[in-house]
Amino acid sequence: MQLCHHRVKKTQNFMILNTVEQVPGGRLIREKITGFSRHRYLPYWHRRPYFGLTTPKEHLNQSACLFVDCFNRWFEPENARAAESVLNKLGYDVIDISLLSDDRPLCCGRTFLATGMIEEARNEAKRLIDVAAKAGADYVKFQTFKAETLVTQTADKAEYQQGLTCADETQFEMIKKLELDKEAHEELMVHCEQKGINFLSTAFDHGSIELLAKLDIPLYKIPSGEITNLPYLRHIGGMGKPIIMSTGMANLEEIAPEINFSHRKKILNFIKKLMLLISYINCHP
Length: 285
Known about the structure:
Number of strands: 6
Helix content: 40-55%
Shape: globular
Order of helices and strands: HHEHHEHHEHHHEHEHEH
Strand order of the largest sheet: 1-2
Strand content: 5-15%
Radius of gyration: 20 Å
Largest sheet: 2 strands, parallel
Structural class: mainly alpha
C-alpha cells in the first residue's frame, strides 16, 4: 500500500511538469532549475504509467521477464501493456524486472551514455544483469555496433530524437556515445558469468559479427533492420551457431530468404503464430 501511494504521489509530481511545459515561460524556468535547454520539448508524462507485477501469478506455469525502460513506463505505457497482454494470452506470466532492484527502478543507461557518464552507464548495465539473473532470465542482451557503419557523419536526427536530445549534435555523434568497445563487452561478460546468466548481443555490422565471434558468444541475434541484408545474413549463417531473428515490420516473404526451402514452410507457419506478439512488442519509436 505504501509503495502504491508513493507511485501515485510521484505520478502527480510528474504531471505538474506537463503544465510547466505548456505555460508561457515554463520552459525557461525549467532550464534554470534543471539545466535542460528551453529549446528542447520534453515528452508528455502519461497519467497512467506502467507498473507490472514483480512476483509470478499462481495460475500460470511459464514466466517471461519484461524490461520496461523509462520511456515506455512513463511516456508511452500502452506499449508495455500491449506486450504484457499478448504474453498473458500466450500463457506467460509477466514479471516487470525493472522494479526488482532494491534501491530504484532500472534505467536503460542511454541517458548516462548520452551525457558522457560512461562509468555510471556500466554500473547501470551491471544492475540490469543482476536483476535479470534474480528474475530467472536465461539471457541478458546488449548491442554491438560501430557508428561509422550505421549513419553518415552529417545525418540529421529523427524528429523525435531532436526533441529529446541535444539539438547541436548530429545523429552520428549521438550514436557514437552508445558504442561498447571490446573491453566493455568483456567486463559485462565476466559480470554475467559471476551472476549465472548468459551474455548475448546483437551485431549490427560485419566487424561486430567478428568481434562477437572472438568473444565466443553462444548464439547470434539478428536485428529486424538487417533482415533483408543478404551479405550480413550469410556472414552470420557461416558462423554455424543458433540464430534468433527479430522480424520487425518485415512480411513473411522477407523473413530469412536463405532458409532451405524444405524447412521454410514449417518455420513460416510457426512465425505466423507469433506475428501478433511481434507486432505489439515492436512499438517503440
